[in-house]
Each structure stands twice: as C-alpha cells, then as structure tokens.
Amino acid sequence: MAEAINRQGVIDTDILIDATHKLPDALNVLAAQLVIGGIKISIVSAMELIQGSRNSSELSQIQQFLRQVSVIPINAQTSQTAKELMEQFFLSHGLVIPDALIAATALENDLTLYSKNIRHYKMIPNLSVIRPY
Questions:
Q1: pLDDT in tens, 11-25
Q2: Which three-class secondary structure string do you get for the chain?
Q3: For the chain, how many structural domains are there in total?
C-alpha cells in the first residue's frame, strides 16, 4: 500500500538502491523530498550504499550522490535509542543493527521513515514509517 510523501523524512536504503537503478517510483520519492526540504539519509544507509559498490565507477557515482544529500550522523542519543530498540525487538521481531540505527535516526530527528520494508519497523512505537510505493 503506497502512501503520500508529504512530510520530511529519512529515506531507507532500499529506496536509495531502487533510485540507483533509475526506478521511477524511487526517483519520485527523492524528488518529493527535494521539494519538501531536501533528501535526508542515515549514515548507515550511506555506508550500505558504499558497501554495495561493485567497482570504482559505482563507488564514484555513490560518492557524487552522497555529496548532494544530507547524511545524518549517529550521535550518542541515537546510539542509545538503537541499543534500546535492539533490546526490545531483536528477540521478538528479529530487528537487525542497521535497521535499529536507521529507525533511531528517524526517531531522534523527529522524521518520518520512508521504506519499502515496513515490516522491519512497524513494531517500533512512535516511529512514523511509510511505504511510498
């Protein structure tokens, strides 16, 4: 179920990967975020994009993209929130460290999280998570 992209948010890695493949829905999400106030991503997503590079050309393209977006770093409070999320949801829901850090980034910056994988996040209280397509 797709929902409107009318609030500033953190873009999850899955949508960023789709955008690198020029998928129109993903490109529309990024364009909408630009209009609202800019594309924001977690440093974790930036690292996941870098890790997905298969060669120096792809790495160069990712570096160019990262220079055009706001990469939100992990601070002490984000780390603490992510740890608490892991304690709460690892055993019951299989929450993994990257997703905990991305969710904590959205929570601590009072931003919506845009992701295609809402099942990774739906159990987290107070997290606004939207599947845009």
A1: 999 999 999 999 999
A2: CCCCCCCCEEECHHHHHHHHCCCHHHHHHHHHHHHHCCCEEEHHHHHHHHHCCCCHHHHHHHHHHHCCCEEECCCHHHHHHHHHHHHHHHHHHCCCHHHHHHHHHHHHCCCEEECCCHHHCCCCCCCCEECCC
A3: 1
